[in-house]
From TrEMBL:
Keyword Membrane on entry: yes
Predominant place of localization: membrane
Gene Ontology cellular component annotations, sorted alphabetically: membrane
Molecular function (Gene Ontology), one example: mechanosensitive monoatomic ion channel activity
PANTHER family registered for this protein in UniProt: MECHANOSENSITIVE ION CHANNEL PROTEIN (PTHR30566:SF27), YNAI-RELATED MECHANOSENSITIVE ION CHANNEL (PTHR30566)
Origin: domain of life: Bacteria
Localisation: Membrane
Transmembrane segments: 12-35, 56-75
Keyword tags: Membrane, Transmembrane, Transmembrane helix
Designated name of the protein: Mechanosensitive ion channel MscS domain-containing protein
Mechanosensitive ion channel MscS domain boundaries: 104-140
Amino acid sequence: MWDTVKLWLREIPVSYEIIESVLMVIGILAVRTLLLGAHFRSRPDLSIDAKRRALVMSRNVTLILVLLGLAMIWAAQIQTVALSMFAAAAAVVLATKELIMCLSGSVLRSATKQYSVGDYIEINGLRGRVVDINLLNTLMMEIGPNALVGQLSGDTISFPNSLLLNHHVRRDNVLGPYVIHTVQIPVPIHLDSDAVVPRLKAVLEPLCAPYINDISKYLEAVQVEKLFITPAAEPRVTRVPHDDKVYNIVVRFAAPVAKRLEIQQTVLDEFLRVQHRLLNPNVG
C-alpha cells in the first residue's frame, strides 16, 4: 500500500520530498496536540508551572523530531549540497559560531538538569524566575531591582544559552519546595552588634519554627536519596567583619519557597527599626 502511495505522490507535479515533509510536520504536530490534550485531561490538578513545563518540553521535542525527519527526508539532497559546499564549511562554522554555542548550552542544560521552568536562577548578574526555555535562549521574569527585595519586577529577561558554557548558574530552589535562604545586611561599624543580633534572632526564630521539623525530615530524605550533604534547617544569625566602615550580619534560614521573601522582609524591617533606635537614642 505504501508503495502505491509513493507512486501516487511521485505523479503529483510537486517535489516528492516537499509533500513528505509537509505530511511529516502535520503528523508530528497532530500527535503532539493529542498527547498534550490527553496528558492534561488525565491530570486536571496540574499546576500552572507543571503545565507550562509540559508545553515547553513537548515543543522542544517536536522541534527536534521535525529537524530529524527533515534531515532523513532530504538526506540525499543534503549530502549533495554538503559535498559541493565543503570548501565553504569553515566559513559557515565561523558564521554560525554563536548559534552552535547556544545549541551546545541547551544540550548542557538538558544533560545536567541545571534548571527548568519555574526555577529561580542567577547567571552572569541576571536574576529571575524561568518561564520559558528553547534551544537557543532562556526567558525569565526579572527579580529586582534590589536583590534584597527578591520580588518579580514585571520585566522579562532573555539570555542566550551560550552563557551556560562560560558562566556558573545559581539556582535557589534546588531542594524542591524548600529553600535555604541567606541574606547579608551591611551594618555601620559603630553600631553594637550585641544590640542588633539578639533582636533579629527574636524575630527570625518564631517565623521559622513551624517549618523546622518538616524541613529537617525532607533534608534527611534528600541526603539519603541523592547523597547530598544537606545544610541544617535551624536559622542562624552570624557576624562577619568586612572593612573599617561596615560589618555584615549574615541571616540564614530554611523555609518554604513561598515564605522566604515574607520572612526576609520581616527580618529587614526589624533591623531598620533597631538601627534607627541605635542611631537616634534620644528619640522617643
